[in-house]
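Problem 12. The chain below contains 308 residues. Write out its predicted structure in token notation.
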Amino acid sequence: MPLTPIAPASLTKIALGIDRPEDVVVAMDGRVFASDHQCAVAEIFADGTFKRLGPKGGAPNGLNMDREGRVLIANFGIYDKEEGPLQRFDPATGKHETLVAQVDGKRLTSANYPVMDRAGNIWCANSTHAETWPQALDGRTDGFIFVMRPNGATSIVAEGLKFPNGLALSADEQTLFCAQTSGADVMAFPVLPGATLGPGRRYGPVLGKLQQEVPPPPAAELGYTDGVGMDAEGNLWVCLPAANKVVAITPGLEVVTVIHDLSGEIVNHPTNITWGGADLKDLYIGSIRAGYVLKGRSPVAGQPHIHQ
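Solution.
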């Protein structure tokens, strides 16, 4: 199926009043969960309302899920100068726990997005150790990717990254994709035996400009990359929040604009995209600015996560 553009007006606002819904995850049974700074995770119901679950703490950011239906939460502590661990919340029992707080002697301050592979490894980005947003996006290379293996062992598998953000695995799990926010690009890492990564390379072109450039570019041209998601046809969708845009990098490394809202009235700083529904064509879009989640229909089905 072609990657036909999605009109912003075709998207529906749900979960009105939610607090910074950075990401959404859809369970196998169709239940929908979103990030919310007032709780561990919020559940969004079919009528568009939502309910907060679990304790408030830190800044729940990227979400994913394991085979048991437990929500994996990357807690981005930089907002409140708190710790930024990888956590887990079980909607069935209400149990909320920290999985990883430090790796190889480095404290997690900004866990950003987790993804689990079929072997049970959890890959997660830690974006920065900066104390403020201006510092975080100044091009520093203090970000890294770490892995938590099924036996609980952890290690850093890639470092020297420019604010690593969203992650996605290829269908064959031979490649891990990572958005570099202050690099305005996406990196691709070969997945090696033992849940390690080989050297990364840029995947596709630079996706826009940065605010530090002179003269400063218009918002529509800003390329700060955030969440990424793979669809069933191998297109890697990339959110560009500062431009109110979502693009896709095709397997041929062409860039296609899928959504662009110049006004920002509907698609306001999109940060992550997630697919759900019986055909995996229900599209959910999170945001760092909007007090709602967007829902629509995708022209292409999403690549299923292990919990789907």
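Discussion. The chain is about 0% helix and 40% strand. Students who got a different answer should revisit the alignment rule from Section 12.3.
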